[in-house]
Structures are given as C-alpha cells and as structure tokens.
Amino acid sequence: MTESDPETVAITDRTLRALHNRIKTSPSASSADIAGGSDFSRTSLTREPLQYTYLEGKQLLNNPSLNKGSAFSYPERRQFKLECLLPTAVNTLEEQVDRAYGQYSMLPSDLLKNAFCQSMKEQNQVLYYALITKHLEEMMKIIYTPTQGDAIMHYSKLFRRPNGCYLNINRPDLIEAGLSHWGRSEDIDYIVVSDGEGILGIGDQGVGGIAITTAKLALMTACGGIHPDRVIPVVLDCGTNNKELLNDPLYMGNRHERVSGEEYDNFVDRFVKAVRVKFREAVIHFEDFGTSNAYRILDKYMDEIPCFNDDIQGTGAVTMATIKAALHVTKMSPKDCKILMFGAGSAGVGIASQIVDNLINVEHMTEEEARDRIFLMDRYGLITSALPADKVTDHQRPFTHDNAPFENIDITDLKSVVGVIKPDVLIGASTQAGAFTKEVVDEMSKYVERPIILPLSNPTKLHEAKPDDLIEWTDGKVLVATGSPFGVVHGRKIAENNNMFIFPGIGLGAVLSRTRKITKKQIACAIEELASLSPVLINPENPLLPSIKDIEYISARIATAVVLKSKEEGLAHVEEHASYASDDLIRIPDSYEECFEWVRSQMWKPEYRRLVRARLS
C-alpha cells in the first residue's frame, strides 16, 4: 500500500473477537477502546507499524494517542477528513520536536515549562515523549524533581483537566467502576498509586498526589519503555492534614482530615483486590505514602502480588548501587564498611533495609552482621537502646545499637556520633538543609581517606550539603552523589542518585516476565547491574552513576537481570502465554545477551505509525 493509495480495512465482529483473543495472549499488547480508536494490532510494546482507528477530523486531532498534528501526511489528511484543520505544510517528527523545544526554551520559569510539557502530553503523546527523550538530561528537573514538587504543591490552582484515576475514600463502592474506565483485563501493565501523604520534601499534598503518579509514569515510558496507553495513575483521596490545603477554596480533594485506621486499611485493600481482579497482570507501584502506611502496605502485599514501593525499595536500591561503585574506588569490601544514615523516615530506613538485603543476598552476611554495620539517626538522635520505645518505630527498631559506646556523647549531635562510629559512608535523607557541616566532614575525614558522602534530600534547597563545599572541605577526596542534579562542580561531574536509574528497569522486567512477585533477589540483581555500569569502574575520577543520556540502555540492562532472576526463581509466568503471531508459547531467552535483545525489542518508542481507517462490515 503506497502513500497515494490509503487503505481502509473492513473489520467484522468475528475478526474483532479473533484479534481480542490473540492480543490477550501477549504480555504487552492492548485491546482497549477499539471503537474509540486505540490500536489493537500491537504485538509488543512498540514495534507494530500500523494503527487502526475509526476516528476522523477533530476527534482524531483531540486523541493524544493518535494525533500527529502537522505530521499527518496528505493521504492521511484526505482519508481522515483533516484537510482544512491543519496548516498546509507536513512536518517530520524531528521538525516538530525542534519547534516544540524552541517554544519550551522561551518560557521564563521552570513551573511554566512544566505546564507546557503537561499540555503537550495531553495533545500529542508521541511528540511529548520524543521531546523529553531527546532532551532528557536537561528536562528531567522540569518533568520530575524538583519542579514537579512545585507543580504538586499548586495542583489545585493549576488544575486544567483530570489526568488520572481519582478514588474517594468516602465512596469505596466506586473503586471497581473507576478502574473500569481504563480498559479490559489485558490492557494495563503498570499502575502507580499514591495517597499523597508523604510527597518527598513537601509532605502531605492530598489529592495533588496524582501529579507524582503521572510524573513517575512519564519516566516509566521515557526511561523504561512501558507503553503510555497501558498505565494508570491513581490517587487515593483519603483527605489531608495539610491545613493550608483544607483552607484553600480551590482545593480539589476531600475537605477533611486524613482517614486512618481500619477504614483506611479496608480502602487500600479494596483497591488492591479490585486491581487484581480487573487487571490481573498489572504491577502496582506504591508511591509517596506516609512512612507508617508505606511499610505496612508493602509488607502486607509484597509476597502476594507483583508490587514495589519506590521510596522504600527504589531509593535504597540506587543508593546501594552508588555505594558499591564508590567502594570500588576505595577498594573496600561492602562487608567491612560502616554506614551512618542521617534521617530515618521511609526513605532512610528503606535505604538501610536495601543495604541489609544486599549484604545478605550478595555478600552472604548474616542479618545480624549486616545490621551491625549500619547506624541510623533521626530527630531524636542515634537509634540506640537508650531511646525510649515510643521514640523508635517498628521499622527502625531492628537497627537499634547498644548504647554503651555512646554513653559519653550527645547522640543528637552528628559530629559527636561521627567521631564514635567513624563511618566510611554518610548518607543524608533528613531534609535538614546544611546538616553536613564542615565540622562534621572534617571529623569524618580524620578516619577515612576518601569519605563517601551522599546528601540525598530533595528538593535541592533541602540538601544536607552542597557538593562544591564537600569537595573543598576534603581537598577533592570526597566521593559524592546527590539527590538532585548539580552538573559539573570544580571540574567534576556530580552523579545524581536518582531513583529513575532503577525503578523503570525493575518495573519493565516485572512486566515483561509477568513475575508473580518482585523479590529481594530480583532487586539485588538490579543493584548489581546498575553498579556494574558505573563510570568509576573505568576511571576513578568519573561520576559514581552513569549519565541520564544512557537511561534507556541502563533500564534495559536492569530489566534483563530482573527477567532472568524471575525466571530462575520460577516466578515468571509469561511463558504460560501463547504469542500473538502463533500458538507457540513465549520463551524467555536463557542467555543474557539474547534476553537483553528481547527486552529492547519490547520497549515502546515515540514514533509515529501509519494510520489505517477501520470500518465495521
């Protein structure tokens, strides 16, 4: 079929049913909303050349999944009744990206740039992802941390149109119906859900939590190749304890304090069960829940369903990979290093827990040996046996150390604690700006030649220390990674200890393998894979983590490790599905390289595909 000879495909009811049955067998194909114009020819996340649609005219231009804007060809314009609805010129996707980047660059503030990107996403999905993937290193701070935090804080004031699934704790009876808007059982691969209570660095944002789920899913697509039509952003609107929001006449969520206890637990449980019934293969990604709820929810479901908590597991995983890369430079075994975690909320304890899991599963230490190497400090001080029981949470308690070595110091004073522990690694997850003072760093430098210091709190204004200060105070000996982008400082590229290096790969691996659960061993493999890609393995002056420019390759590598580990554990059940093209079962390649190529072939790409007019016959 040539460009001058547009085709129309007659689709019978019988053919539709056959296509549906075929698509159901594919781990990544979609059969959603055929009558509405979505693609139903897909056999993988990306590579099918055609899209079928019944839409035409303004309806087609208003569908972000199918809209090509000025890139519609002349035959397509004729066939889909777009003539006179578009300027005469036909652009390539590359030309559209250049124009969009020029528009983006003219905007005077980061928040306006964030709004521009969101608006583009709602107009033309392919163009949005082509733009951000081309300029990802520059635009990451706009579409994610730290600018997305500002967008979340002002969500109700900036609201233009709904962009997710809003579930109301006062109407749990609507959960099933709410999810049904998003398609059939086989249509969804990945769900990010938040209750908005613990948005990193900005706390309780209520219904504004929907904006962190959309941001995470944008990264799942841009970095991990998950199809953007096969995801659901969900907010659980349980109220808010943020008085400013409750007093804001424009606030879009429930105007009451947060519901907790049994009612809250039942609401979350009903949501999880509804997902398992409605979208039985989907991975659930828990995001920015409050600390106590985050751990309880993860502990409850992690052995039952494929689920993941990025704040607990993702932050910990990428941090452990960073530490392993730094230890390569210092030539120290992970078994021997001492780690001081400053900040013991969900992120801090999550990091500590991932370090323990890695020391157990990779370094073959006992749990007691692993925990003995890790020290936690929170607002009450170093967690030791001297702290009253009500000052220590259930998830902090396993990290409690005997107080005897600390009897003669103030356990709330970081410098004093550093002087006793003599840590090789100092990690900040406290949101206490400037907590890593020159005095603290000087004290640490007395005992280690090359201190490893990771100020990870977000946003940038809450960092425990700035990398330029750390480099100056240690005469350049510090090994540093930060939680926000800093670029080049004193001639050194500063690694950004960003979860985006790990969670897209873990999520993609879980989706492609159809793993029954995401295990500690799968996450351990992801950590090892990321650490193996560190530039410091080539040159000790390089950054501790690779460049964001390579994120698609990194995610594919991590996903490959997860897929193979899931298969090894007997948890991958994608091989129980017949393929789209034949009745043969899908087989995960046994070799790493073959599996890597298979993973890459499944990843969605922002490319326009040829539209074919479908009509019922």
TrEMBL record:
Domain spans labelled Malic enzyme N-terminal: 121-302
Species: Starmerella bacillaris (Yeast)
Cofactor(s) essential for the protein: Mn(2+); Mg(2+)
Stretches assigned to the Malic enzyme NAD-binding domain: 312-567
Similarity-based family: Belongs to the malic enzymes family.
UniProt entry tagged with the keyword Oxidoreductase: no
Catalytic residues (UniProt): Y144 (proton donor), K216 (proton acceptor)
Record GO cellular component, one term: mitochondrion
GO MF term set: malate dehydrogenase (decarboxylating) (NAD+) activity; metal ion binding; NAD binding
Pfam families for the chain: malic, Malic_M
Name the UniProt record assigns to this protein: Malate dehydrogenase (Oxaloacetate-decarboxylating)
